[in-house]
Amino acid sequence: MISIAVLVGASLSFLGGYFLSGRSLIPIKKGVQRQQEFLADASHELRTPIAVIQTNLEVVKTSGDETVDSQMTWVDNAYDEVTRMGRIVEDLMFLARADSGDVVIQKESIDLTYLIKNVTEKMAPLAGKRGIYFINTLDDDLIMAGDEKQITQLLVILLDNAIKYSNENTSIQILGKQDHLGITVEVMDQGIGIAPDEIDRVFQRFYRVDKARSKTEGGTGLGLAIAKWIVDEHHGGILIESEENKGTKIILHFNEEVGNR
Ligand code: ADP
């Protein structure tokens, strides 16, 4: 069965007693509660790598007679966790700045065809490590009004996920087309897919369908929350279609024309 989730909305900003979230108004109490949950989740997420780093360094500290080589395993483990922690903090800082209105979207005329080619070219070596390759089918000159840095980040998040959750030796197709309704970009992988009852939740901060897999692949559980924020800021739409053990398709839609920002 194919599952679908559509999301449109925007970051939280204060508006006389209410937080404005996309097109709906959320009472302050709920907004504060959300922030508290976010803080609790963030602390919890950071506690795990800290504990792993501490344990590994303790082993190194207390094993004086081991050779440097045998200690490298513990040092490597600690290093991996520090790297993951760094990524979590970076993503958290982005979302915190986004929530408080500190991320300024600077729209200009951007060439999405060029950006997609550029990002796929840069990510091809990472995909190649697992025998995964990109197939781009793009209209020429997909021009939109957008923030180049943020749209690049959005593409990186979606392609990174497509790689992380794909089976080895498969392809990831990227379609880009324009019609009278605007620009549509589709990223299709042949990966593990997402179960119907999980699909609505993957945009929630820290929500991961398979926590262990996300962790081994270096995930933070914040990528799609950031992706959604970026899409919202561009007044676009993001939709997921997925089938377990078949693959996932992420569909982006932008209709803001250059000169109409
Ligand atoms: P993560 O850092 O864990 O990848 P994301 O916020 O980017 O976090 O995604 C949330 C969850 O959604 C992932 O942990 C994964 O379970 C699921 N997911 C995202 N993209 C895909 C995909 N292309 N295929 C299958 N599952 C996906």
From TrEMBL:
One of its GO terms (cellular component) is plasma membrane. GO terms for molecular function: phosphoprotein phosphatase activity; phosphorelay sensor kinase activity. Keywords: Kinase, Membrane, Phosphoprotein, Transferase, Transmembrane, Transmembrane helix, Two-component regulatory system. It is found in: Membrane. This is histidine kinase. The chain crosses the membrane at residues 1-20. Its EC number is 2.7.13.3. The lineage of its organism: Bacteria, Bacillati, Bacillota, Clostridia, Eubacteriales. Residues 41-258 form the Histidine kinase domain. It catalyses: ATP + protein L-histidine = ADP + protein N-phospho-L-histidine. GO terms for biological process: cellular response to phosphate starvation. The keyword Ribonucleoprotein does not apply. The chain holds residues 176 to 436 of 436 of the full protein.
